Amino acid sequence: MPFDESPSPVAPLASSRLWTAGTTGGVAVVVMLVIAAARPDISAWLIGGACIVAIVSWLGARSQPVAGQASSADVPATSRHGDDGRLLDSVFEALDDPVLIISGGEADDIAGRRIVLANRAARELLRVPREGMLLVSAMRDPNVLEAIDEALFGGISRTTDYAAGGSRARHWKAWVRPLPSPEGAALALLGLRDETDVRRMELMRVDFLANASHELRTPLASLSGFIETLKGHARDDPAARDRFLDIMAAQAERMSRLVADLLSLSRIELNEHIPPSGRVDLGRAAADVVDALSVLSQDKGVSIHLAVPEGGRITGDRDEIVQVIQNLADNAIKYSTTGAIVEIGLDIGLDADRATAPRMPGATRLSLLTPDREIGVRYAAVTVRDHGPGMAREHLPRLTERFYRVEGQKSGERAGTGLGLAIVKHIINRHRGGLIVESSPGEGALFTAYFPMTDDRTPSPMPA
């Protein structure tokens, strides 16, 4: 009997089912987009939800064979994936939020949870392939894993918090939903919403109010006292009036520096999780800092020795890198005696071990910030060394705390705000670098800030 090449009578039905599913998803997207235009505050959730509903409806229709039709495994891939399927797959990949579809093994076998599908945002965040990887290898947060289990085996929708690992803290809102599972397999949808900016804004407001109210109390009380004195018995005393006005001017300047440093620190912390994209020549940045501090160093009677080679280029924000070097050099000048030398150096092309190697023999050494290690990365290290009083071992761990000052070094003609090293730490953290301090009482201190170098010849590869 000859082979009948006429189309199967169920083919139009299957095609109609796929068309209907795709149309339903498309209508959902259109409706959600219309609502999103009227409600910008929830537009991101609406668009993401519409795309996910469309994908799920299309997958469900495609996975259910019609009577007499071959299973999806027997149909060529080009037949199974029509235009609607490719469009929805593109939408799934284009979502800004990480989204994963999780399958469950046995209820008591946590290692059986696998990633069925992960969009590009999820692959970049979790460093996972598109499909097939064990979930526990990518995420180990117990709250998220528990929520996934409840969705897989209890059909319960959950929302919880998720904190990504690494030196730069990021906060996510994880939402888990059970999915209609073809062929009886347990499936769950996991989405992550980045709430880092929201959390940082909240912390910034709280910290600013707490720090400002605490640190501004002393100069404000001082100003109030001098004003009261000038209005009283010192009103007709020119010498006392001039002396009090000089003190008041110094206190007002201190408050101005304090507010400026607090705002700078808050701004840096707010953008700390966003990597910079510019290019910075560390040698030129260090030379600019030396020029800017020349007047201060001459007034203090301190010499600055600069030794920087060419080629120390990194990916970064130039203004922030200059602020790092300037804060470190300013501290070195401030705590140096007249006639002392401040040394600023630059080493380039170092591996991680050489970048973090000791540079001040016999001194106590502590890493104040350690970046995530990456294979094959070369570093450029900026060193700032002073020969001042130095610091005892117990002070080193607290140097980057806000308003921390080493006992006995709080006073001086240019008393700082106690925020300089905190700003340095957060800037270096944003640039994926590290910070090390070495010090010994009577021998001075040496700070090393190291940054990943830029290879301008080859672009950075995108994660798979």
TrEMBL record:
Keywords: ATP-binding, Cell membrane, Kinase, Membrane, Nucleotide-binding, Phosphoprotein, Transferase, Transmembrane, Transmembrane helix, Two-component regulatory system. Residues 211-455 form the Histidine kinase domain. It is found in: Cell membrane. One of its GO terms (cellular component) is plasma membrane. One of its GO terms (biological process) is cellular response to phosphate starvation. Pfam families: HATPase_c, HisKA, PAS_8. It catalyses: ATP + protein L-histidine = ADP + protein N-phospho-L-histidine. It comes from the Bacteria. The keyword Kinase applies. The keyword Lipoprotein does not apply. Its EC number is 2.7.13.3. InterPro entries: BphY/WalK/GraS-like, HATPase_C_sf, HATPase_dom, His_kinase_dom, HisK_dim/P_dom, HisK_dim/P_sf, PAS, Sig_transdc_His_kin-like_C. This is histidine kinase.
